[in-house]
Amino acid sequence: MKLDLVASTSLAEELASRIELRTARIAVVGLGYVGLPLAETFAWGGYPVLGFDIDESKVAKLQRGESYIGHICPERVSELIGSGRFDATSDPGRFVEADAIVICVPTPLGEAREPDLSYITRTAEMLRPHLRQGQLVILESTTYPGTTEDVLRPILEESGLKAGQDFFLAYSPEREDPGNRDFATRNIPKVVGGMDETSLRLAVSLYEPVVDGVVPVSGTRVAEACKILENTYRAVNIALVNELKSVFTAMGIDVWEVIAAAKTKPFGFQAFYPGPGLGGHCIPIDPFYLTWAARRHGLNTRFIELAGEINTAMPQYVVDRTAEALNDDGKAMKGSRVCVLGVAYKKDVDDPRESPAFEIIEKLKKRGAVVTYSDPHVPTLPRMRHHTLRQDSRTLTQEFLESQDCVLLVTDHSAFNYDFIVQNSRLFVDTRNATAGCEAGDCRIVKA
Are the C-beta atoms of residues 403 and 337 closer than 8 Å to each other? Predict the structure, then answer.
């Protein structure tokens, strides 16, 4: 046992030295909305970086200096490739070259809203034959407390190497916010939890040179729970204002005006805003990871589950409000021409994952509407996990807008000219308060 401890200490010291000298090579697994900016951040910090993705087309584009993510311009990718500190591959055999391996793969929900860890387990199985002594493995994928040590660790240890002895293991939740101009990977503090003190020390030293602040916590479970708390907090507060939207609308009160007034209080209030439903890979998913984990301990998370019910009901609320608005114009939903504005999950990004737009479009079609869409960031509706809509984005000409019975705003992209759209529309259903200040003219604007 003493010899094992000496060997482990030697491996840790060697890795710590390579990290300090920036000669430690970092492999980032999963080059999507989280992994690619993280790889760029490590390279910017002076580390040699190996980006890995099973999608060979992504690897090929990166090698050509091209971007496949809307808010990451090609110039950034070209600069990354030209730096000489970044290489992209789809060959898992190259994991052996890495000193630190950071896993940034998706963690969606299954059909019954149970955690789908298949991307993590497949990554671990792919990594296992190439794991070597002295490597640091860090999981960044959002998941429930216990995943790093109860799911990832056993698969890696099937290699014959032992965590904490032959290799080191940590968890650091990703906090990426695509399209946010104020906060990116470099200036968002990193929460880090290690399987043991040595793993924590190594992971902290890896991130410290490249981000504005590292927050070490007592273990991987605390770090995993931190990310769940952050997104559950947002989901619950969004559910509150979504519920208040329904209540205030029935009372003839504009919920956005109420929120604008409330946020003038300099303490005790943080503004959250209602919408057509939750989207993205975090807020609609993470709270259900926690509810699933709680049930394993015989506990119920009624507050979180109620918030989930409210938020998932929003697409139906929007469709109902649209039907009422058409009815007030003497038109049935069936046969009415409805153009949905924006299918990305949030403003000014090209990411449609979990966007409420898909469910809204399907519900409108089910009720007989003739549905089109326009989104400058999503030119064609991609195939999604639960949706197979295939349409192309329409150009918002005067002639096209005048031909529509209703224009329904789902995602409030800055590229939309709301004055022009409203002036050439008959009915505009606004789920984002984007038309505040617009001259309505002959158009009727309905908040939803």
Answer: yes
Catalytic residue among 104, 226, 282, 443: 282
Q: Is 259 contained in some domain?
A: no
Q: Is 151 a domain residue?
A: yes
Residue 368 lies in a domain: yes
- Residue-wise pLDDT for 18-57, tens only, equals 999 999 999 999 999 999 999 999 999 999 999 999 999 9
**Maximum distance among all Cα pairs of the chain, rounded to whole angstroms:** 83
Neighbouring-strand partners of residue 88: 51
Q: What tokens appear for 412 in the block?
A: 């409030």
Cβ-contact 401, 424 below 8 angstroms: yes
Q: Report the 10 Å Cβ neighbour count for 331.
A: 17
Kindly report the pTM of this predicted structure. 0.91
**Residue 33 sits in the same domain as residue 161:** yes
* 104 is a catalytic site residue: no
The reply to whether 250 falls in a domain is no
* 295 and 430 co-located in one domain: yes
As a whole number of Å, the end-to-end CA separation of the chain is 65
Residue 353 lies in domain: 286-447
Helix orientation angle between 220-250 and 286-296, rounded to the nearest 10 degrees: 120
CATH code at position 113: 3.40.50.720
Residue with tokens 């994991």: 95
- Chain-centroid distance of CA 402 in Å reads 35
**399-402, long-range: CB within 8 Å, 24+ apart, which pairs?**
400/339, 401/339, 401/425, 402/426
Do 209 and 304 belong together in one domain?
Answer: no
Cα R_g (the chain), whole angstroms: 24
